[in-house]
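Appendix B. Raw example, untouched.
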Amino acid sequence: MASGDPVSALPRAGRPGDELLAEMTAGRSGDLDWRSGKAFSLVYNAADPSLEELQHQVASLFLHDNALNPFAYPSLAKMEGELVAMSADLLGTEARNGALTSGGTESIFCAVQTAREHARTQLGIAEPTVLLPSTAHPAFTKAAHNLDIESIRVPVDSTGRADVAATEALIDDRTALIVGSAPCYPYGSIDPIEELAALAASRGLLCHVDACLGGWLLPFWAEVTGPIQPWDLRVEGVTSLSADIHKYGYAYKGASVVLYRDRSLLKHQFFSFDDWPGGFYGSATPAGTRPAPPIAGAWATLMHLGHEGFIAKATAIAEATATIAAGIDATGDLRVLHDPDMSVLLFTSAERSITSLGAAMTKRGWKLDQVQEGLHLMVSPGHREVADQFVVDLGEAYAEAEPAAEQEAAAAPYAGRAIS
């Protein structure tokens, strides 16, 4: 078999490690180059070589360890407990009721599972439902599907935020959980968490805040840019919250936390079993075996950066976001949708084809995500050094882009509508 040909079976004889490394290195040539600063998704570029080097060393140190058994690896158990404690302190509660997960999808799964079990055991609801804005992450619908419960998406208001009145109108005797985002992925806007939480509390329901995207930036963003609306566990009525450390916490994948106001809710996640010959088995999340490097890497990242480091990162992001947003506005046609509360920009055009504009930016090396309503950016610290070049390239790409097709122009007035 020639090097690089598709593998369809285990090779009879092993290959030298240097040969494999060379092949894998060559194979990565078409992968996302996030270090260039020209990518806006998947990797949150901290632009911090010393942090990256530390993370590589930590990953190597813990590469073969298994967090399945905390008694076998007490160092991992200690770090995991401290990650939950630091997250809880940052996100507004003294209670250390939470768990580390592999990412936002697993954290959201845990919150939905908890809501299902709470509904069945405490509310007497056999077939509970979840109410969530149409902008809520698909992980909620995925969790509901896998847990065999119903998720109901509620249209957002004209600002792209959760419509509280529409949510209230859909509450019935099966409702178990109300969801809000801080912020939502499409628009970077924070839902009215205080109102949603109050609505949930008034009906004896749970309220989850999906802060997977904003949880490790918003506290520092507020210090850098000014006060923002309440959104975390400081809000009365918020019963759980998810936040990804591997997003704006700058840890490598995958590390997230799910937190609860009360330990009685956290217990709904626990699973234990001893009715087999293999001894006691227990876990706090759906995963059994868990890789150690993300736990150790997240702990080392937070300890290395500290509060001052996160403020510096938030400052860099705020500066880059302001520069890019001003460049978008300077075209006179492109506009950012829904007045984002953070470093997420979704912009569209009435005069130019968004597909053509995106292609023109790709030709210049930029990797923008095209979604239903336009081009989508999530700004990281690494974008501060390239923000001015982005503006120059955007102006050139705009001049080069094709006019909007008739159907695009017709849709432009409705560009702020909710994704369905």
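End of appendix B.
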